[in-house]
UniProtKB/TrEMBL annotation:
Protein name: Membrane-bound lytic murein transglycosylase B
Organism: Lonepinella koalarum
One GO BP annotation of this record: peptidoglycan catabolic process
Cross-referenced Pfam families: SLT_2 (PF13406)
Superkingdom: Bacteria
Every Transglycosylase SLT domain range: 48-357
GO MF terms, alphabetically ordered: peptidoglycan lytic transglycosylase activity
Amino acid sequence: MKTLLEITALCTGLILAGCSSSNNTSNSAVNALDSNAIYSKDRTLDNFNDYVQFLKQKAVGQGVSAKTLNAQNNIHYIESAVRLDQKQAGNAARLKNQPPLPPNPNGVTNYINKHLTQAKVNKAEDNYWDVRTSLQKASQKYGVQQEFILALWGMESSFGYYQGNYDVLSVLATLAFDGRREKLFSQEFINAMKMLDQGYLNRTQMLGSWAGAMGQTQFMPTSYLNYAVDGDNDGRKDIWQNEHDVFASIANYLHTVGWDNRLPWGVEVQLTQPVNLALSGTEKNKARSLTNWQAQGIMLKSSAEAQKLTALSSADLWLVLPDKQVGRAFLVSNNFRTILDWNRSNYYALSVGMFADRIKAGAGL
Ligand SMILES: [Ca+2]
């Protein structure tokens, strides 16, 4: 067991609200473990409770109080979370290990047709009129256009409808124990404990998706701690039930990672001559000016987007070819890259951008 001195030393390097000497004293009931400690016993179900204790010890090492940790009983193994994670992993592994499939020119179009339906656009417009006051407030305060906040809200939880009913501590402990992405999920578990420790909510309210994403924003605990804000100044950051907090938290996330509300996300383009695939991509060093891209034969696809192109004329732009050398092409701004920070998928980010454009047109924003 670590001494109080050692725990204090561990805490000094961490910027944590709960990491005070008084907490250390109460934490003395649970051993503190370093974040890098490795679980050496077998990953068999009869060791699951022991593993949960191991995670709790790591949480002590990051300043979570023993009182909070000891109050969290009934953290249980959830087999369906592992099954869903393996299904996702299986798809990824198949894509990784097989010889690359020929690029599908309809890849992004198929994704958008599935995830950005007309019904969803209609629902976004209906919702807009109900929530516009709180939406406008978040938009102005954080400098993010309303349509993007609405689009992310719609994509993540179908406008608050789907939030998930899994016990978050249980799914996070289960997925950490499973081991495929142990580092990620054990830190999310610790951060979920921090949320409870800091009194943002109680355990019975801490419900989410099979992977531990919570509330109308579907924030993982780390995102909650980093980006959730109190939009209506009632003292709570309630991303589950309070639309002010939901919109402010989405906008604060985008603002924090670099959003610029003077810019559209991007435009669809066409290549009038072959472009080296290596020039495409959203890495920082691949930014070029509009004139530079135009010199390589890249043109706007639809004149209906001429106004958007003008708004992008002095911005850094990246070429995105979501289906490699076949299919559709896009020039995107740094705002697109901030959506990728939220979810690292070009398909997802394109669907959010197009969703926002359709909301803007439909609601006359
Ligand atoms: Ca609030």
